[in-house]
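FYI - complex with zinc ion, inputs then prediction.
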Amino acid sequence: MKKTKRFHELILVAFGFILIFTLLLIERIGILYQGTASDMALLTDDKITNDKKTGSNSKCLVIWEEGDATSEKALKVYDQILTDMRVSHDDMNIGENTQDIDKVISKYNSVVLAMSNLEILGKDITKVTGWVGDGGRLLFGIPPFKSSNFEFISDKLGIVSSSNNYAKVDDFVSEEGYMLGAQRTYPIIDGYESSLSVVLDSDATVYAHTADDTVPLVWARDYQKGRFVVCNFGYTEKAYRGIFSSAYTLLDDVFIYPVINASTFYLDDFPSPVPAGNGEYVKRDYKMGIADFYSRVWWPDMLALGRDHNIEYTGLIIETYQDTTEGELKANESTANYYYYGNMLLNQGGELGYHGYNHQPLCLDNFVYNQELGYNTWDDYKTMHSSIKELIRFSTSMFPNQEMSVYVPPSDVLSPEGRQMLGVDFPQVKCIASIYLEGPDEYVQEFEVAEDGIVETPRIVSGGILDDYMRITAFAEMNLHFVSSHFMHPDDLLDEDRGADLGWEVLKANLDDYMGWVDESAVDIRHLTGSEMAGAVQRYVNLIPAYEVETDSISLTDKGLIDSAYYLIRANKGGLDNAYGGELIKLNDSLYLLKAQSSKVTIIRSK
Ligand SMILES: [Zn+2]
């Protein structure tokens, strides 16, 4: 009796071991990983037939002043955000206008003054304010200069008094019910005297201000049948686009714009050979070599962060760190690391993509670097071509079931020849994830689909330092495209410029904080891989939204809807109850996320 019981126990223990062993085996070889077909999957090129078209009858006029550097910069910002938000718009260089201004603007529903100089309008300024009184919507797109025209109309904007000196703006705070991410103050690096210093009356609603609350940065004020919005924020850079676009959303009672709705985290150079490099700070903090540090500390920590924040990483493969750019390109024979890290990443739900045969950007000898990055150029087109061919062979031999479609250029550098080569010769590459903000040599992108069908999915912020500039850039993009896109490298821990001396614990805490900020600011944002982000961008560019706002409801139609689409809706007057043909989620007091699943959606306004 006793013997049989003992025997059964032993069998159970043996089964337990077999089970654990099998699970480990499955995890290592990657059986658990299955691709998902869904409304996030990449589409074939022929499905994308529209390029950020607008179906709306409502029109906007952007007025700017040629020769004024600030106005020219402002025009660039507004042109792109209006295109992305699908606001049909014309630009008018004020110096070239020969018609009566009221005749011109009467054809438009809204006007953006992308210039500071109101004097140029002369006496016509009263025609502009008269048009607002009749129901027009006017956005002062950048802070106006103090001038007699400004003084003349300032009471209509709600200005009680204004100082002759401009206010220095060192930070940005959104009111809670206005922008996403309003829970924080966003410091601005290198702030200067750039905003009007004003006192407002009680009819003006302030939406954003400085942390000390002395400078209103965005406000709105109804004027007779129309509305003024003032964006008293003068830094007209790409990084701050979402601040300008959010101000624009305040003009109408209800404003709807399509968004990408995606949060993606990329791991560049992962998997890759364990880099040579100075492990000084790793040794200081962990008393171990780089390889041990990666496998025992960094990667388990990254996996834990991913679990905590619901992130599925997109890893970008480097085959070798040899910098050969001529002759025969030798295959990397030591693949154990790739299997180990690659499968763990895939099993966590992540995805793999291409970074390079080596870390030399796809540039030929005609490419001129503006900064010294220490890279070689490729000997000829054929060798550059064979490097990508070898990378694809290497990657697919190890991960035959993984469909890889994302390419990340080494150091975000990609020459026109390299770019064309990817589009023409490598149909496997469907999406390029380079960089959003401009740099000296970088391949800078917008969220769009290029003419050759490649999806451009720029990364917005990077690394583990996550300084104030990155924070406010992330904040702005969250509000413009409802997107978050971050990348980092395992070798950030070896490079002082990327925070190596701070140590991994500090960088990890920063990352955790940033990921938590995304979770908190955009609870409902989709966590996607790189190829899913590209699928989201394809659907986004294809939309042709048009909407009609009635007293009780809003009807939204979209001729470009593929399967589902996302919109942010700003409701400035009254709330929204629910939607037919879609799902409505309230994000804050005035902002809603709509998932449209039908080309016609009816949104019910609150009574
Ligand atoms: Zn890299």
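DSSP finds 14 helices and 30 strands in the chain. Residues 268-269, 355, 359, 410, 489 surround zinc ion (CB under 6 Å).
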